[in-house]
Amino acid sequence: MERIEQEKKTVGEMIAIYCRKHHSRGGNDLCDECRALLDYAHRRLDRCPKGNGKSSCRKCEIHCYSPENREKIRKIMRYVGPRMLFYHPLSAIRHLISEMK
Ligand SMILES: [Zn+2]
What we know:
Layout: H1 3-22, H2 32-46, H3 67-87, H4 91-100
Helix pairs in contact: 1-2, 1-3, 3-4
Bound molecules: zinc ion.
């Protein structure tokens, strides 16, 4: 899988886990805030000027998230990261978490 697609999938899974635990409305749908954040994250990946050529956002010199959205993503990753690694020990996820610390 291409890096961009992998990161999209990973960020989507993380937001879904966080939302279910914190804002659950009883179904599998994301709340409005989490859906907006997921759309935002996907748009950033779509527009990443480095495309699939770079190995990880961690090594990127462009900080493309706004401070507000970056803080939201960090909060989600701090919560979900350790739980997700338990189930999905993928190196792609480790990348994502380490870049947000
Ligand atoms: Zn939510």
